[in-house]
């Protein structure tokens, strides 16, 4: 029998949502969620006495991010901030192992693997897509990263479908939002006017088990329609768009374009875009030892392809110019990622646009490349 | 004809025990040989109880010195005897300079083997031309050893090797032995001769026109600086060896060797897991582009 639409959707009020988070904690999860810090919406561990911020609205543009607080009671009337969930899945600094000297030589002890369970509260659809892309990088290939897999397989995802996209959002273009397709245990859609109310649906048996512990009412047709209306409205209020049709091939043909140089004069090679990007996964390692040399450690740290040292091999760096580094980043995201992992590496979250101190806009740059490519016909093959 | 890059034996291990690819295993230096002024060979044996992984010619290991760092180094020893790992490298950076100074009995961390292999078995029945530039002879050595151990399965076998000066010639003794013991044509050239050098002077690509092989049935395996690789393929093409019969070994910055760190990307390729050995056709365009 086909399930009637909405039959498995329920409505929660704020008390019920808080009860849900409490139930997650009782199930043994550490809870991470949105928190306002230093004027931005960040993802951090939430203490049991902390509640989700209310009335926070954001204003995002190229190189611009402002939060306004104290507006109304809504919880999720804003888009993503500078953080993404990658800081939990593969922390910015991670000890890979310790090498300890013994009488024969040295022995290796693996870095402590986080065996705790994390619950991510408020994962936006773009970030859900980013987590799926990271799974391909760190655990679905020939090799799996033990530390990533240990954290990832225990993560409980409470997604939030987006009803208030920001000026830099373009998830609709990338097919990742504003609706959460899959990859969540529970998904919320904010539908309240005045007092916060949420539609909730479970995506996994774990999600259903949690939901069973929470007081809720079955969603009625009006509530479901209100959720749909808001998601439909979100689709029409994306601040940015990106035409992805043939984009990978188009950029692959622009390797020698003078446009890279035009971007490079603005790009500071600061690496902000790579830190804020939820799919950028590059890391470096740092080897340390104590003063006696009896204990050495190897640390993995987030790295950025915008640094000169990133491509260093004996004799110098491969990508000496900023134009080559920006080209590497943009073509990796929008072109070569397809060849590597079967899809684009951009989820349309807009963070690279918002957090670029020079306001470089990947959607605008892609548009200019398309314009240039269309002005010159593609070479006959 | 296109030869498939041989599936590395390590691939079988990947689905095996849930070993952490980022964790080195302790090995020990059983021999350290200074080859030339700035190159050296380390022979390593596993610590008791450490598993020995088979490797294929062309694959590399990550060698680690505690507190100093880790470097990707091609295996230069005999693939039929993985119980001893042989690595030949130049002392150029902080890690390799320190590695040049370690001695018999010292401990070293090993991760690997990683990467793709030279198409040694797939080349049977063909003439094989090895072209090496400088330290590029080291990653080709396991393939040479393998081909010579089954010499009868190949047609003509040629090694063209270019070094900077006569003093920079690697594996000098072995080259002499190979020349004496096997049906192997070896041509060596140097960039700068010394007064006692009576051999070739000039770039290695100049040797290609001087050696016999049947272009339509030849496989070329090339390792050296990228500019040398490009000119070698051009020269081979002039002799009638199509680029789809040329295989090259490439090098980039590597931190992880398994596709996690992103450093070794060359366009869509991860040198660590898609390479380091590539059919030339797969990388030809990328090698012609600047700063990719």
Q: What report would you give on this structure?
A:
The complex is a heterodimer of chains A (381) and B (292). Chain A is of the alpha+beta class and 381 residues long. Chain A contains 13 helices and 16 strands. In chain A, a hairpin with a 5-residue loop joins strand 13 and strand 14 (295-302). Chain A is globular. Residues 1-5 of chain A have low confidence and may be disordered. The relative contact order of chain B is 0.15. In chain B, the strands form three sheets. Chain B has a seven-stranded mixed β-sheet, sandwiched between helices. In chain B, strands 4-3-6-1-2-5 form a six-stranded antiparallel β-sheet. Chain B has two domains: 10-14 and 21-114, Elongation Factor Tu (Ef-tu), domain 3 (Beta Barrel), CATH 2.40.30; 121-288, Rossmann fold (3-Layer(aba) Sandwich), CATH 3.40.50.80. Chain B is built from seven helices and 15 strands. With 292 residues, chain B is of the alpha/beta class. Chain B is 21% helix and 28% strand. At the A-B interface, strand 6, strand 7, strand 13, strand 14 and strand 15 of A face strand 1 of B.
């Amino acid at each position: 029998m086909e399930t009637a639409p909405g039959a498995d959707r329920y409505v929660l009020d704020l008390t019920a949502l808080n009860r849900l988070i409490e139930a997650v904690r009782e199930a043994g999860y550490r809870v991470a969620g949105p928190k306002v810090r230093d004027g931005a919406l960040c993802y951090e561990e939430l203490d049991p006495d902390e509640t989700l911020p209310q009335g926070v609205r954001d204003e995002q543009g190229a190189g611009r991010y402002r939060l306004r607080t104290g507006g109304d009671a809504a919880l999720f009337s804003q888009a993503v901030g500078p953080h993404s969930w990658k800081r939990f899945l593969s922390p910015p600094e991670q000890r890979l192992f310790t090498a300890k000297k013994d009488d024969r030589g040295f022995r290796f002890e693996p870095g402590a693997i986080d065996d705790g369970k994390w619950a991510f509260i408020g994962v936006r659809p773009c970030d859900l897509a980013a987590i799926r892309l990271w799974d391909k990088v760190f655990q679905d290939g020939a090799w799996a990263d033990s530390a990533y897999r240990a954290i990832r397989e225990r993560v409980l995802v409470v997604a939030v479908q987006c009803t208030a996209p920001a000026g830099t959002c373009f998830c609709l273009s990338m097919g990742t939002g504003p609706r959460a397709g899959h990859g969540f245990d529970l998904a919320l859609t904010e539908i309240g006017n005045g007092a916060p109310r949420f539609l909730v649906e479970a995506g996994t048996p774990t999600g259903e088990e949690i939901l069973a512990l929470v007081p809720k009412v079955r969603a009625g047709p009006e509530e479901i329609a209100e959720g749909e209306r808001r998601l439909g409205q979100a689709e029409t209020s994306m601040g940015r768009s990106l035409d992805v049709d043939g984009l990978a091939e188009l950029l692959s043909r622009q390797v020698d374009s003078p446009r890279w140089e035009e971007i490079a004069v603005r790009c500071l090679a600061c690496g902000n875009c790579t830190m804020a990007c939820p799919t950028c996964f590059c890391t470096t390692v740092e080897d340390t030892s104590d003063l006696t040399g009896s204990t050495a450690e190897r640390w993995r740290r987030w790295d950025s392809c915008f640094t000169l040292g990133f491509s260093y091999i004996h004799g110098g760096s491969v990508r000496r110019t900023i134009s080559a580094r920006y080209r590497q980043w943009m073509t990796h995201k929008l072109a070569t990622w397809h060849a590597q992992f079967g899809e684009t590496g951009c989820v349309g979250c807009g963070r690279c646009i918002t957090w670029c101190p020079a306001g470089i806009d990947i959607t605008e740059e892609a548009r200019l490349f398309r314009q240039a490519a269309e002005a010159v016909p593609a070479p006959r093959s | 004809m296109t030869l498939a890059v041989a599936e590395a034996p390590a691939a079988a291990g990947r689905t095996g025990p849930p070993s952490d690819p980022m964790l080195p295993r302790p090995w020990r230096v059983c021999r350290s040989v200074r080859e030339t002024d700035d190159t050296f060979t380390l022979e390593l044996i596993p610590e008791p109880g450490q598993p020995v992984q088979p490797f294929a010619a062309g694959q590399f290991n990550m060698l680690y010195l505690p507190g100093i760092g880790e470097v990707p180094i091609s295996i230069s020893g005999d693939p039929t005897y993985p119980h001893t790992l042989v690595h030949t490298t130049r002392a150029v950076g902080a890690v390799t300079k320190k590695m040049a100074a370690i001695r018999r009995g010292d401990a070293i961390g090993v991760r690997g083997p990683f990467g793709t292999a030279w198409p040694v078995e797939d080349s049977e029945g063909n003439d094989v031309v090895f072209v090496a530039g400088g330290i590029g002879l080291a990653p080709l050595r396991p393939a040479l050893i393998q081909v010579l151990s089954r010499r009868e399965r190949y047609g003509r076998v040629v090694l063209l090797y270019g070094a900077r000066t006569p003093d920079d010639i690697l594996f000098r003794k072995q080259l002499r032995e190979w020349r004496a013991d096997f049906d192997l044509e070896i041509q060596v050239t140097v960039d700068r001769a010394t007064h006692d050098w009576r051999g070739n002077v000039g770039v290695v690509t100049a040797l290609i026109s001087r050696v016999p092989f049947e272009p339509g049935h030849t496989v070329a395996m090339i390792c050296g600086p990228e500019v040398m690789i490009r000119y070698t393929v051009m020269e081979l093409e002039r002799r009638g060896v199509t680029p789809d019969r040329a295989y090259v070994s490439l090098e980039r910055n590597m931190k992880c060797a398994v596709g996690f760190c992103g450093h070794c990307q060359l366009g869509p390729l991860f040198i660590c897991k898609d390479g380091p050995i590539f059919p030339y056709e797969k990388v030809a365009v990328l090698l012609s582009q600047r700063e990719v």
